[in-house]
Design goal:
The chain has eleven helices and eleven strands. The chain has about 325 residues and is an alpha/beta fold. It has an eight-stranded parallel beta sheet with strand order 4-5-6-7-8-9-10-11. It starts with a strand and ends in a 6-residue tail after the last helix.
Length: about 325
């Protein structure tokens, strides 16, 4: 199911077939932490050939994406049918009684009649006690700064999401940061099978077993932090290592006359993984999708595999692995 299709002439990125919904472009624009520059980044990305935009409620970029898309669609530069929009039910918005309401809010902000791919952001569901604040708090913490995680079962969340597919408000469903055990449990309970698992995946942390498990089921896999998060957000492991500066990556990029980012992204693309690099820089946005006119040799792939150190950037507390279902 994960063989790339030939994309339309206006697209740059090939698309991967999914179990439901339309094929997903293999390169998307990540919009986490893009802030006030998100609208312009989206316009630059679509001009560069992107047709896949990745967001989440907790990124607070859905409105910016909706504004940019409306302008571009109205001007005839792109059609809604060409675009693939992924968003996520974050934290407390995953409470089953909140799913429909929160998805409606996302649809309103994105200014669209449907979402192409709706994900459960994390396998544990947080309290929704601060969801109605302005702005909403999707991941509330207690007085000890610990996430307020509830006993809500993600299967119950997913069943409410399935109803949205029935009504045409969502085209495909998936998860994010789910383990093999969690994917298998949801798969067995689901009426509409999950089509995608968005996970941390890069040369330091390639997740071979999890990727193979999902792909054998026909699921697509999307990689966040595909470049190893060169600019580290506050909630990830902080150190001085930069994946883009690994000597192996620099050597290959200089020899092939490609950027280090292109080498790291191509490494994942050749594994049939969807990549969603984040950038607000015009040149980086353009180069990050220019991945399909070259390939990495087996020798280069083996060199990059040596970088695997099992280094997860998202610590378990933030991945919400505390709820073991």
């Amino acid at each position: 199911m994960n063989t790339p299709n030939t994309s339309s002439p206006r697209d740059v990125s090939p698309r991967l077939e999914m179990l439901s919904g339309k094929p997903i472009p293999q390169v998307g624009l990540g919009t986490s932490r893009t802030g006030s520059r998100c609208t312009e980044a989206v316009k630059l990305a679509i001009e560069a050939g992107y047709r896949h935009l990745d967001t989440a409620q907790t990124y607070f970029t859905e409105t910016d994406i909706g504004d940019a898309l409306t302008e571009l669609i109205d001007s005839g530069k792109v059609t809604r049918e060409e675009m693939f929009i992924t968003t996520k039910l974050s934290g407390g918005s995953g409470q089953p009684h909140r799913v429909r309401e929160q998805t409606a809010i996302s649809l309103q902000k994105l200014k669209t009649g449907y979402i192409d791919l709706l994900l459960i952001h994390f396998p544990a569901i947080c309290s929704d006690e601060m969801l109605d604040k302005d702005p909403p708090v999707f991941f509330p913490r207690d007085e000890n700064n610990k996430l307020i995680i509830t006993e809500t079962d993600y299967v119950d969340t997913y069943r409410e999401m399935e109803k949205l597919v029935d009504e045409g408000l969502v085209k495909a469903l998936g998860v994010s940061s789910f383990s093999i055990k969690q994917v298998e449990r949801l798969w067995n309970a689901a009426r509409i099978k999950p089509t995608n698992n968005q996970i941390e995946c890069h040369a330091w942390f390639p997740q071979y077993e999890l990727v193979e498990f999902c792909q054998k089921k026909g699921m697509t896999v999307s990689a966040y932090f595909p470049l190893g998060a060169p600019v580290r957000p506050f909630y990830v492991i902080q150190d001085d290592e930069i994946l883009l500066q690994e000597p192996i990556i620099v050597e290959i990029s200089e020899r092939l006359k490609r950027t280090p980012a292109q080498i790291l992204l191509r490494f994942l693309v050749q594994r049939n993984i969807v990549v969603i690099p984040k950038s607000v820089n015009k040149d980086h946005i353009a180069s990050n999708i220019q991945l399909f006119d070259f390939s990495l040799s087996e020798s280069d792939l083996e060199k990059i595999k040596l970088l695997n150190k099992g280094k997860r950037l998202m610590p378990p507390d933030n991945l919400l692995f505390g709820v073991d279902k």
